Amino acid sequence: MAIVHYWLLNRRGGEAVLEGLCRLLPDADLFTLFYDPELVSPAIRQRRITASFLNRCGAITALCSADADGSRIFRSARLRSGDQQRIGTGKGGLAPSTARHVCYCHTPMRYLWDLYPAYLREWTPTRWKRVLMAPVAHHLRLWDYASATRVDEFIANSENVQRRIWRCYRRSRR
Questions:
Q1: pLDDT per position in the chain (174 positions), as tens?
Q2: What beta strand segments (E) does 36-167 contain?
Q3: pTM for the complete prediction?
Q4: φ, ψ for residue 49 (rounded to 5)?
Q5: Rounded to whole angstroms, how far apart are CA atoms 32 and 55?
């Protein structure tokens, strides 16, 4: 049994759900891209946590750092503090073919799907950056859709998110 969470760098809504999953699955190992033990709750910190090689090579500082006003910088893109939990890659983990892959989805990556035009204007104010961003976003959407096909079942916490899952991934809603 394993739980995959995109990153463990704060104590927000996604991490509260993760704590609940940890209580439900007390023997599950936890896997993540990035992990900073000082930024997560004691309940998460006490788990067996495996972070990716990116965490060990110092990429955490380059990819995600806090500003004085509490907002985050992610790959040089400013996000309002409520948007961090929407950047998720947890479902992209490869599970063995015999495993059941269940994805609790807070929402499909809004910066790639339904809010792409707004995020594109906010992140890339100059025209040449928008032109360069288009193929990158296209590649990420292809990857996101492909990774969704490997999920056996999606679970969402609202009908609104269920509709987004259907719109983005054409997966049945629960």
A1: 889 898 898 888 889 999 999 999 999 999 998 899 999 999 999 999 999 888 877 655 444 444 444 433 333 322 233 333 333 446 887 778 888 888 999 889 888 898 888 888 787 778 888 888 889 899 999 999 999 999 999 999 899 999 999 999 998 755
A2: 49-51, 64-66, 72-74, 77-79, 102-104, 153-155
A3: 0.70
A4: -120, 130
A5: 9
Q: Which two tokens stand for residue 1?
A: 């049994």
For residue 105, what are the domain limits? 2-93+100-169
Query: Is residue 174 situated within a structural domain?
Result: no
Cα 65 to Cα 75: distance, rounded to the nearest angstrom = 10
Give the phi and the psi of residue 30 in degrees, each rounded to 5. -120, 130
Residue 90 contacts residue 18 (beta carbons within 8 Å)? no
Residue 64 and residue 73 in contact, taking contact as beta carbons nearer than 8 Å: yes
Q: Which residue has the tokens 């704590």?
A: 19
The structural domain count of the chain equals 1
- Residue at 144 is within a domain: yes
* Residue 77 within any structural domain of the chain: yes
